[in-house]
From TrEMBL:
Top enzyme category: oxidoreductase
Species whose genome carries this gene: Ziziphus jujuba var. spinosa
SUPFAM superfamilies (UniProt xref): Rhodanese/Cell cycle control phosphatase
Entry EC number(s): 1.20.4.1
Reactions this protein catalyses: [glutaredoxin]-dithiol + arsenate + glutathione + H(+) = glutathionyl-S-S-[glutaredoxin] + arsenite + H2O
A Gene Ontology cellular-component term: nucleus
Domain Rhodanese: 18-119
GO molecular function: arsenate reductase (glutaredoxin) activity; protein tyrosine phosphatase activity
Name this polypeptide is given: arsenate reductase (glutathione/glutaredoxin)
SMART domains to which the protein is assigned, alphabetical: RHOD
UniProt keyword list: Oxidoreductase
Database matches in PROSITE patterns: RHODANESE_3 (PS50206)
């Protein structure tokens, strides 16, 4: 069961995301709608995150690695990742999740490194992981 949270870099995420068993969880709030997002990422805003953890577990069924991020991944990203891990421990069901990761430097770092941004308005994002 995932108990600890590790950080990964943008380049590590690029190589990981070609795997089908990974989900990227964007926990930014309104910024997602005007700043764009990482292609294929799910949106679970930090302000309602706790209420929607069960929905998130349903949505990531079959995935074993979750990567959380917010704008900088300093507060909201790690906090939500921690809430998620605590929740799995509380319900005593790991839901098949083996790794809970946080994207270092968040969306802003991702964008600043020139990595691709999706600007679709679909919920969920329909874009394939590049
Ligand atoms: Zn999109």
């Amino acid at each position: 069961m995932a108990r600890s949270i590790s950080y990964i870099t943008g380049s590590q995420l690029i190589s990981l995301r070609s795997r089908p068993n990974i989900a990227i969880i964007d926990v930014r709030d309104d910024e997602r709608s005007y700043d764009g997002h990482i292609a294929g990422s799910l949106h679970y805003a930090s302000d309602t995150f706790s209420d929607k953890i069960s929905n998130l577990i349903q949505e990531v069924k079959g995935k074993d690695t979750l990567v959380f991020h917010c704008a900088l991944s300093q507060v909201r990203g790690p906090t939500c990742a921690r809430k998620f891990v605590n929740h799995l421990q509380e319900i005593k069901d790991d839901a098949g999740i083996k790794n809970v990761l946080v994207l270092e430097r968040g969306f802003n770092g991702w964008e600043a490194s020139g990595r691709p941004i999706c600007r679709c308005n679909s919920v969920p994002c329909k874009s394939e992981n590049a």
